Amino acid sequence: MTTVITPLGVKLGVVGKGGVGKTTIAGLLARAYAGRGSRVVAIDTDSNPNLGLSLGLSLEETEAVPVLPRSVIVGSGGGGPSARELIGEYGRATPAGPTLLSAIRVAEAGAGCTCSGHATVRNLLADALTDVEVTLVDMEAGLEHLSRSGGTLAYADVLLVVCEPTRKSILTASRTAALAAELGIAHVFAVGNKARSAADVAYFDEALAQEGIPLAGVLAYDEAVVDDDREGSVGLRPVTDDVERVVAEVLAVVEAAVGSGGNR
Ligand SMILES: Nc1ncnc2c1ncn2[C@@H]1O[C@H](COP(=O)(O)OP(=O)(O)O)[C@@H](O)[C@H]1O
Ligand SMILES: [Mg+2]
Predict the structure, then answer these.
(1) What pairing do the DSSP bridges indicate for beta strands 99-102 and 40-44?
(2) Which atom of ligand 1 is nearest to the CA of 222?
(3) Residue 48 Cα to ligand 2 middle (Å)
(4) pLDDT tens by residue, 161-203
(5) pTM score, whole prediction
(6) Is residue 218 part of a domain?
(7) Is 3 inside a domain boundary?
(8) Distance 58 CA to ligand 1 centre (A)
(9) Which residue has the higher pLDDT, 115 or 167?
(10) What CATH number corresponds to the domain at position 245?
(11) Quick check: is 29 in a domain?
(12) Burial class (CB in 10 A: 0-12, 13-18, 19+), 77
């Protein structure tokens, strides 16, 4: 296993088109960091929150995770709670190790926009998070929360854009990278997912090179992921050697990018 020494306070956002595998990959990365002894906070910003399942919680436990209060000003400046206090109050331990925070839940039709939940996450990431090694945000699909005004991930160090071998997901990656540049996020990498052939891997290489987005790793289409999903055992079983190797590659790329300092 590659040893990864993560700089204190690195903040990762996992983004991409709907259904590409953001939650699956966020779960794998969070598990891997926790497995290496890092204190990890994983934040679910999907209004249909599933990250808990990928970290080994049952559906009931996932749904029982308290939702962060909306529009919280975090940190001493505004007199609000610190990130540490919020994590202590709203975070839930998971079998996989990371502490899970749930930022958004739409419990009823017509409940309104989710912007105020995103504002809390933005403010949380802006706080120092000094006793957390890795904060990882599983983002809701869509680009609106990466806009310059109020972007949820404005304080992220690294964005990982998950892609399928489809033109549309590459297009989403390209738009995401452009918004990330506007937000001042220094490091954007793609993670290929659901590759079924060497041609899929070649497609990721070529299409992402054309967009100027470096590829951090490619995860194969894996029947075990599908089985785990159906059996409700996502996040509980050990990952295969192949998955472990790809995840290690991605973590090494992240480390190389932020090794000289996360925690802006
Ligand atoms: N590498 C993979 N191989 C097979 N199925 C996958 C893989 N990654 C994700 N999936 C499946 O694709 C679906 C969407 O994945 P998910 O992680 O929920 O995507 P997102 O969070 O981007 O919406 C899920 O049913 C998941 O089990
Ligand atoms: Mg998801």
Answers:
(1) parallel
(2) 3
(3) 8
(4) 999 999 999 999 999 999 999 999 999 999 999 999 999 999 9
(5) 0.93
(6) yes
(7) no
(8) 17
(9) 167
(10) 3.40.50.300
(11) yes
(12) exposed
